[in-house]
Amino acid sequence: MTEADEDRADALFHALADRTRRDIMRRVLAGEYSVSALAASYDMSFAAVQKHVAVLERAGLLIKRRSGREQLASGDVAAVRSVASLLIELEQVWRGRIARIDELIAFEPEERGNHQHRDQEGLTCPSPTSSVTSTPGH
Amino acid sequence: MTEADEDRADALFHALADRTRRDIMRRVLAGEYSVSALAASYDMSFAAVQKHVAVLERAGLLIKRRSGREQLASGDVAAVRSVASLLIELEQVWRGRIARIDELIAFEPEERGNHQHRDQEGLTCPSPTSSVTSTPGH
DNA sequence: ACAACGTACAACCGTCTGGTTGTATGTTGG
DNA sequence: CCAACATACAACCAGACGGTTGTACGTTGT
Fold it and tell me: Per-residue confidence at B106, pLDDT binned at 50, 70, 90?
C-alpha cells in the first residue's frame, strides 16, 4: 500500500525533474498535442521527445488518445494535484512541529521572544473542502 | 533568469524523487536531526545518508546548523512551498485551457454537452493572500 | 592526552537516464 | 497502390545516480 504510494511518488517527482518534461506538461495542459507536434518544438530527436512523453505517461501525468495515425497527448491536472497533495502532507508535518513549539512556549512564557514562526500564510488553503489535511490538534 | 529557475526546479524535483530523501524531509520538517541521528534510521551506510542530506541541502530544502561536533539539519518549509507554487503554475496553464473551451461553447451553444470540466475544486486557493512566496535562491 | 564520536570527502562500482541512430509497423492522401 | 507521415521500439553510448568502503579531520568527554 504505502510501498506502491512511494513508487508512484518516485515516478511523479522524477517525471517532473526534467525541464523538457515540465515544458511538455505546460503544453499538454494547455491543449492536445500530437507527439510529433511536440517533438517539433525541441532541439532533439523525435525518439527523445517520445521517451519523455512515455515517462510522463507512465507517471500518469499525461494521457494519450489515438486519432487516426496521430497520438494526441493531453495533461492530467488531477495527477498534478496529487503531487501537490504530497507536498501538503510534508507541510502538515512541519505544522505539527510548530504546534509543539507553541505548546512549549505556552508552558514557559519567559524570556527571548524571537520565535517568528507564526504561519507566514502558506499554501494550505483553509477552505472547508481540505479533506487532505489531518489537522494536528492544538 | 528563467534558466536559473529551471535549474532550481530540476534540483527541487530531483531531490524529492527519492523515497529516502522524502522520508528525511518528513523528519527534519518535524524537528532538528543530526546527520548521524538520521543515518541511524536507515538501512544504509552513513555516507549514503550524508549524500542524501547534501542533495536536499543543495536544493535548498534543508538547512544545516553547526552545534558542537554535530550538524543539525532542519527542513525549510518555504522551499517546499516553492515547489507547490511550481505546480500551481502548471494548474494555471490548464485553467487557461478550460477558460478557452468555455469561450468556445459560449459562441456555439449547440448540442453534445459532455464537457464535465467544471472545476472539481482543486488546490488553488482563492484566498486573497495567494502570493505563495517563491523563495529567493541561496 | 587520547579514544570515541560526528562529519566530510574521495574513489570505486553497477545501474539508470537522456540522448542518439536505425528499423519496423500502421495510417493517410493522391 | 504507394509514398509520405506518425509512431513505436531496440541497440548503443556517455554521464549521472545511489550505493559502498576507506581515509582524514575537528570536537568531546574522561
Answer: confident
